[in-house]
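Hey,

The postdoc asked me to send both predictions to you directly instead of through the lab channel. I've kept everything plain text so nothing gets mangled by the mail client. Protein one:
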Amino acid sequence: MIIHVRPRFLLSRDLPARVDLVDLQIPEFGFHAHSGFEVTARRIRGDIDVLAVCKNNESKSADGILLETPGHVKCFSTLTCWRVRFEPKPGFEIDRTVTHYVRYVILDEEFNVASDDMALWNLHGWRPRVPAWSKGISPAIGEPLMELKRGNRLDTCVDRVQDGFVIERFELFTMPTIEVERFAEATVLRERMPGFDDRFKTTLVLNHAVAGSPRPSIVSHAGGLYEGG
């Protein structure tokens, strides 16, 4: 199975900050990537104030990473650590590491790709793969995202705040599977999509991530009936 995830940090124009990726962990896959080695974080586009984790490849800045697993996966977690440095007021500097935890739940086993890019679920020319929860929800609100100060987020996003700024964020995100061909088409149409050749090959090291194994309790809150597909 191919999984596309995009650990991202929203940069604030009102509060300039230096934001650097520290590392990215996916415990269920035994995956631990360090900034400057396996992965890095770059702006998706020059006009978009979002840093996205991508493979540390000098030839391309991609929106996210691809993971290949040996079988279908039903749930997994990403833990992304960022170092942030900023001055909320003159003479008062904050330098800290903040963490973003996302619990992903994959709703079905129909196809062999899953992506947290909501635009791919309703790509023109393809049958909609739209979960009920996302009906009418903008990707800017629904997709996983880390930020210094909480913006407009869903109630599946819970923050721990210190000094008025987010230091830990916990999100639950459910997503459908999509066709390999749909994703391949998107890599042609969209310049910043990661390519299959840049995928990380992983193993399943925790049983609850495997499709068909007993579900952990958090999954019962995920919902996920399809509409239009």
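Protein two:
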Amino acid sequence: MQTYEMPEREIDLRCLFWKIVSHWRAALIWGLVGALLLGAFGAVKYLRSESAKSQLTEEQLTADMEKEELREVERLAVQYEGFREYEKRLEDAGILDLNPYDVIHYEILYYIDADAKTDSAHGEVVNTYNADLQNAFRRRLSSADVREEVAGILGVTKDTLSNFFSTSNAGSSSFNVVILSQDEEKAQQVATYVKGVVEDYSKEMQTLIGPHSLQILGEDSVRQFESGIESLRNNSMSNRDSQEANFAKKAEEMTGSQQALFKLRQEAIDEKFEKESEEEEDGSLINKKFIVLGFAAGFFVLCLWVLLKEVLGGKIQNPEDAGQFTAGYVAALPEGQKKGLDGWILKQIRGADTPASREAAMAEAVAELKAICAAQNVEQLSVLCTAGDAAVQQRAAAFADELSKAGLPAQVNGESGAVYFYEASGKTRANALAGAVRLALLKKQAVVGAAVEF
């Protein structure tokens, strides 16, 4: 007795991806719905917050407050604003994120040869102006325009630049330039800029101070630990934490009204300095964060629904699915044509091997099937369709007619010794097709293959 084992169904991830993409209109709609719902939630949250704030207005807080108490709050608010300015400078310079154990130390060593010798009645006199040139070059590298450019390249503030960029004398005829950065590319950019500045300035000094030659004796870049960077980071963190603790301590010593007023001042200062902080995002009736999250959530829900429908729906998704059950020739028949983006997505789903038109695919399937039946001595064919869709059943009957016209007698749901299945992706259940194949084999009918609308 011939047995039939139910094959494991494989999932074509490429086809599944494009099936999800094909629902892009619904995904956009669900995304907009999610954006509207969460946007409305954000608006309600904002209105409730504003309502709570209005219960303690500044006028109510200051009505019964002594002048000295009010001045204490104002002084502390001014100090807090200065603290936020300091904190912002630290953030802009990236001081708190520095890793002192992983710093690029880039150093350039210059040598100046500026010995001018003259003769006099008292003998040879050596007139040396190396020191003048050393000081001139170092002043140029410490000028405002150079510091501004270097700070911009390194991404630090000008008031912290001295920790990352410095120059010093290295003997009576030399000076060096030290560049520190955690980004090697930025350090190289600064080095290139510095060499250009020094070269241009050397041309000016030929006439302003005197003839000289300038050489680079050494240029080296190493990644190493920098104690100065560690001290800068630790001192900055310690200072910041100390100031925060000081504000908390002073606020605790105030009365309840003073604390509430100082909190209002803090919120106003935070809104000024943290344009993209959570405080500012919550301070808007139309909250962009909730809208973006809502759109993403709606889009995700739709994609998840399509994914579950395709994977758990139990229906064949492409001709290859039918081939797992019929184990014969499977013809792919385009179900229809679409234009624009939908047409392009449909091409990705079907693949490059699927004929462009249904007519061409039908003619190819009929010719191939005739050749297979001739090779297997099949003289009559029974066309079976397990899809429950009436339109698919009608097209299956039309396919049988085409086979008969081509000289291969075919009948829908016939009892001949060979069967051929006509199915449709997304409409034919895999279990129904597997059961029909099993039944045909039990009847000792040969399964020639299948045609699948795709």
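Summary for protein two, as requested: Residues 276-283 have pLDDT under 50 and may be disordered.

Thanks,
C.
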